[in-house]
Structures
1.
Amino acid sequence: MIKRIVVIDCQMAGISGNMLLAALISLGANFNNISKVAVSVKKHLEGCEDVILDLKDVVCGGIQAKRIEVNVKESFDKRSGKQLRDTLIQCLKDLKLSLEAQRFALASLDTLLETEAKVHKKLVEDVHLHELGSADTLIDILGVAMAIEELGFFKDTLIYSTPVSIGGGIFKFSHGTFSSPAPVTLEILRSKGFAMVGGPVEAELATPTGVALLVNLVHEVVRFYPSMIPVVVGYGAGSKNFKDVPNVLRIVVGEPLDYGLLRDEVCVLETNLDDVAGEVIGHTMDRLLSEGVRDVSVIPMFTKKNRPGYIVKVIVDREDVERISRILMEETGTLGVRIIPCNRHILAREMISIEIDTRLGKETVRLKVAKDNKGKILHVKPEYDDVKRLAEKLNKSLKEVVKLIIKNINSIKNRFD
């Protein structure tokens, strides 16, 4: 059951590991616990002589925010991906994070290492990191994992993100001069199908570590905030100051508007037919239902030149879109099928069987039971095929049989409570 909704709003000034960590501290994560990460990294990372975390309250573009600065004293030219990963594993043992937090931290670092390897056409174990090899990277990943665990976001939480702003312009780093976003940042977003938007300033707004954390944390990217009741808002400030844009990452935590409904995603396939015989449409409906579609409906209409025709609408799961579209084309001869992705609010459905008393003895009837997400029963409906069978067997009308079944349902209602 979803208890909270989190929105990571990175459409204004992008995201970095430090900004994400600072925003989580702004939401209530304990900075003293995060300081333990610095101690562990210093202990296990070869060449790391000292790590000091400094948390500040700042005003950025008129917005009060937290800013965390990671001051590292270390001596290294470049570190291997294996060295960084081994250190992360040692730190995870030290910090005794939950299994969910450990998986998140490892997945975030692996995203960085695998993407670096792909961009530079090397094996993961042969990747050597320059800026990303700093202790700063491990502190961001471990600190964010610890903060998310403390805030409870790994459980009973839906995490959304807005499209991430990547900035623009040209900047320099160890591999030379590039336009924003950096190659690794862009490849992470591309490989995960994560939405991005350019601007609003000429600067690197999305860092590789920031987006690696983001893509492993977020369940869905949305242009607009989902329906929710906002409860607490946190702001994490970046190190740079921009003239017209507050350099802050905003995270909003809220409660879902709970009307007891579940949600799923389906696709609606549509096509217009104006030259197909009724027998073909009937056969097509039977074929589609036998192929496991959710529903099929046929709507009479008038097409161009006032010709009578039909709209065929089919509800399918996303993975079945292409297969069912092909069947629809083969059976009807239509030249095109419209695909409409959509969200649905639904009730949980369960099919159970009960025995009812009739003048001919006990008879089994299937019932479709609809419940909300808290288990409350809203509807109980007898399966039509069973009602029809009993009506014919008892020589009664459908209405009479339905009344008989409902009477039996009421007498055993405790089965549903």
Note: The chain has a mean pLDDT of 91.
2.
Amino acid sequence: MFQRHLLPLLAEELQHMPAVALLGPRQSGKTTLALEAAKAIPSIYLDLESERDRAKLAQPELYLADHLDKLVILDEVHRAPHLFPVLRGLIDHARRDGKRAGLYLLLGSASLDLLQQSDETLAGRIAYLELSPLNLLETGEEQMDALWLRGGFPESLSAPGDARSLRWRQNFIRTYLERDIPQFGPRIAADTLRRFWTMLAHHQSGMLNVAQLARNIGVDIKTAQSYIDLLCALLLVRRLPPWHANVGKRLVKTPKIYVRDSGLVHALLDIETKETLLSHMVLGASWEGFVIENLLSCAPPGVQAWFYRTGGGAEVDLLLQWPGGDIWAIEIKRSLTPKVERGFHAACDDLLPVRKLVIYPGIETFPLGHNIQAMPLMSLCQELGLQSLPSQ
């Protein structure tokens, strides 16, 4: 089993909050992580996709009230939205009896239903954590190429060969389209949504043009926007927002779009091997998305991500804004001899970041001049990971 970077933070939240929601796409390892976190404490696990376990909750007040002395893990909790008012009452009852933490661990494959329900009924009683597929800290640097090609879903990364890995991801995509996505929204033709998802993969790291996407699949803009909203809510696609602060420049206001897992990008584009990837037009965009997802997966809670672009050509691939307001400017290059372009210097003059970094696929950190450092992806992941560990 991979040692998940989120485990210490999950354990800490269970010690301080009555309910914790662990969100992430299917097959990202939520159940394995939850059971690992629960090893040291009395717990019970209920899979709400199981008829037997759903039957236990036919009268949830009675069943759950009998288990207030345990951590109750509810998997795929979006299937039982009626539980949230019950959980609120049980949490408040337990608080009056002096038990204020570690009551419920809720696992969900999407943010939309879970957040809508809990915003109404569990405010102040729940903490949210997001489990992404595996990142570089969890796999080790020796697996970086495999992680980039195959993506971070454990079954895909651990497959015995590239062909088997690709088949797993293709089946994963088909299952999402035919079984999972219809649970969360209006019925969408699987072929239409697959074409839409594939177009997003072709457009990896590009500016989001909803009107163009809508024309390409023959739907109206509102429908295309709903497809993007759904894929984002399912934690499969990321909209990276543009920097919005007033810097006296004409800023680009359109978000950038990424299919979050690089392995899914390659599966949607039928890229099986690293050799095929290295000759494909998506190469640079795929590497950019891979770097961004790894950095955000390792970053501490509260760090916000943006990109910066002005009408005059100033540009930064990724801005990390820390809770205190400090900004790190990060440029991403797929080259062993990275060079900083004029647009990055201009953006740094506008933003005055406290750190200026260029992430590249090498193994050494070295200066590039103008207080800019070239740094391997693993090195920055490690630095961010250390800062995200719970304080002792």
Note: The chain has a mean pLDDT of 92.
3.
Amino acid sequence: MNQPLLDIQEVDASYGPIQALNQVSMHIHQGEIVTLVGANGAGKSTLLMSLFGNPGVTRGEIHFDGTALTSQPGHKIASLGIALVPEGRHVFAQMSVEENLIMGTTPIGTKHVHEDLEKMYELFPILEERKQQNASTLSGGEQQMLAIARGLMSRPRLLLLDEPSLGLAPIVVQQIFSILKEVASGGMTIFLVEQNVHHALKLANRGYVMANGRIKLGGTGTELLSNREVREAYMGG
């Protein structure tokens, strides 16, 4: 198989004296949806943030398309083609929906902005309806859609999503995962961090289970969904 797009090898990372990641290894190939699942506090979000150097990696290596990330500043990493949709959405509350989307072009400039705005409005029709509203007036689900669309405006090669279902009603969660499936069908490579194990593993080609800063299991989404240990620990049996 070809070289992975993202390759994480034996990574340790710490917050001061607290070791948050311990010998974490995983990989993602171009065009895959890979999910990292586990309980709150397992280290999932820490792994995502370690790609951008916060926390810094104390041991091991992270490569994106052959480029070592551990020696790169955060803005340079974004310019390589990695977009992060953070936990909690973090939209620009006092800016309009459309202004938020335009902010997503920061790593690449505005050459394709009009074309890409049209694509986002096709993918997220509610955002076109709300495009002149301040982001603070949107519902939680609409803000999550805006955060995803803002990430896509940078035309990333790898889209990182940190807990996109957090705090959303079940019907909205279904909408979000349906949209992610559509995004992936266009060839987007997605690394999804999620507590909603059922939805995440149904969507993913492959998945990893993390606990206490370590990778405990790996396999296809179907394999992990049918794994008794996973079902009992994260899906109520």
Note: The chain has two domains: 6-81+157-234, 89-150.
4.
Amino acid sequence: MSGPQRLVGKRALITGGASGIGLATAIRFKAEGARVALLDRDEDALDRAKQALSDAVLLPVDVTDETQVEEAFDSVMEQWGGLDVLVPNAAVQLIGRDAAVHELDREVWDLTIGVNLTGMYLTCKYGVRCLLASGGGSVICTASPTSQFGIGAGFDAYSASKGGVLALARVMANDYAADDIRVNAVVPGVTATPLIEGLIEDPEAINSLVDVIPMGRVGTAEDVTGVMVYLASDDSSYATGGVFTVDGGLTAV
């Protein structure tokens, strides 16, 4: 990558880091000079991530399991002695199972809230402790347009979980501003990642989505990484409590 590296010396941990936006962010962070740790429950995906991130810390972790999360942060702190950037990114979107609330199975609700919101809480619970011990840092939460607007019709569990993510990010920004910890949310739009494989493979569904995106295309995971780098870097030293939208204009119209 040409130009100065913006994350030299930064130590960054990313959940859901073995694929999609998490992996693209990890690769970009490494290119910008950071050390990266990836947490993901998909061990096969972690093995594949080694090819791009041979020197990364790769830990199989289910973010809904508090013991696993705590042990992962203990391991990272033991290896690095501190943490500067936390990206709670792990999420599920149960396409074909999520539904309007009157048809929504409790199992789908619990699983979605468990990964997307409780997983974020647990990641932040132990990650923020590491940032406090390290003298501050940046938390970058992955939200969704459905956290702001009711545009995810039929994805009621996912929309509710991401609304919680955004609310938690904003209150944490207030909680920790005096500790030099910045907390912001990135809001990717429709992005071609494994999370929405079911939609990407349905031409009718994806075309209907593209029709309402002013830029006329689905985003890529790499489209999101520039904002991630900005929020991880010292360039964003006065940015906290913000919502940074990367959606091709979807929520602007």
Note: Residues 11-193+220-246 form a domain with the Rossmann fold fold (CATH 3.40.50.720).
